[in-house]
Amino acid sequence: MVVIGGGIAGLAAAWRLEQLSPAISVTLIEAEPRLGGWIRTEHWGEVIIEHGPDSWVASKPAATELARALGLESEIIGLRADQAETSIMHDGRLLPLPSGLSLLVPTRLRPLLTSPLLSPLGKLRLLAEYLVPPRLDEDDESLASFVRRRFGREFAERVAEPLLSGIFAGDAGQLSVLATYPQLRRLERERGSLLRARAMQARRPAGLAGGSPFLTLRSGMGRLVRAVAGDLQRTVVRTGATALGIAPSNGGFAIDLADGTRLEADGVILAVPAWRAARLFERSFTRAAAVLQALPYASSAAVTLVYRQSDLAGFARGRGFLVPAREGRPISAVTWVTNKFPARAPEHLGLVRVFFRAERAGLSDDAPAEIPVAVALQELRSAVGLQAEPLHAIVSRHERALPQYCVGHRQRVAELRSLLGSWPGLALAGAAYDGVGVSDCIASGWRAAEAVLQGIGARQSVGR
Hints:
Blueprint: E1 2-4, H1 8-20, E2 26-30, E3 41-44, E4 47-50, E5 56-57, H2 62-69, E6 76-78, E7 86-90, E8 93-96, E9 101-102, E10 105-106, H3 110-113, H4 120-127, H5 143-151, H6 153-168, H7 177-180, H8 182-191, H9 194-202, E11 214-217, H10 222-231, E12 235-239, E13 243-249, E14 252-257, E15 262-265, E16 268-270, H11 274-281, H12 286-293, E17 297-308, H13 309-312, E18 320-322, E19 331-336, H14 337-340, E20 349-356, H15 358-361, H16 370-384, E21 392-403, H17 409-420, E22 426-428, H18 438-463
Parallel strand pairs: 1-2, 1-16, 2-12, 7-18, 16-22
Antiparallel strand pairs: 3-4, 5-11, 6-11, 7-8, 9-10, 13-14, 14-15, 17-20, 17-21, 18-19, 19-20
Helix pairs in contact: 1-10, 1-18, 2-18, 5-6, 11-12, 12-17
């Protein structure tokens, strides 16, 4: 068995293969010299710096289940409860994000109706959601179109868009509502009004509550990568090995590597970005390659700054703030990292993470690090008045890192899986298909492992 890609999805796939089939041997191929993909934790002294995701969504259980299975349960921590406020920039000022939002939908109206984020007309339009007729067809539409249709332009631009940008780093006018938040369309069809549906849910017994919506590991997300890799018993890990192509061979598959070697395998899991998978498929699986190549990606860039905690006093309030696209700034968000999670730095130090709209900042891989750092410092001065110089700065850049679930995404993924159905033992995993979060990627790796084993079994049964 061969797994191509050593990010968290590929590692989870290899780990799951070992769990499901004790006799199996796996080869994991990773082109980079390190495992983990976008998950990368760096230390500056006792400071923990995340280059990629800093947490996972608690309501999606795969990451929590994996961490517990690896003996990391004591390391799992949640958000700091004493710094819960988040702000949104509006006309250059930071205003509190109204509380009570769930999946972009207000569960309580008072916080929004008393917020200066919306004008009186914007608030009236929000209330008019009760009267907007539901869309009952199954056709896809963009998230921006959905939110504007239900709640109006002001709510879409001033509240929903910055929240979505923080999750998907994409254009809400292009992102598919059916691929990102299918629950919203389902609630619309079933209840007619989302405000009415959320009000009904809010009146139900809460059940188990009080947990943090986001979880991480005390020593950083990289700990999860190391734990998975360290737990592999029958997997040969080859870093710095680039796969060039894959083709059917002898009832299984052949994988050609850049060093001239060829691997033969009964099954293959491709846990790489869709555009890389397209290159591996282009000779032997041309139709699937074309669909993969059509899945768009966005780049990501951030700057992490280390300050004396005393320099942040009076400036770092709550967990951070979001910046709507309408503000015309090169950044999309700022996180006061040491207010968000505990144990990120010694008490006398504070961490700040500035996220960029990469297409505006011109932050290509060859741009000097001084450029994004200078922009980040200028934005902090402009937004909150922070004048102090940081003790340390580090730039994180990820070219074509974030898949964009554009309108029609579910149909494209369904077509892709239909095409691969002709090749039992071949599966895809990763963020490009069913979810972009850490738990989504882990779950996709597990599903791919199960599908490949099932496909091999079905193929061997037919062969007999």
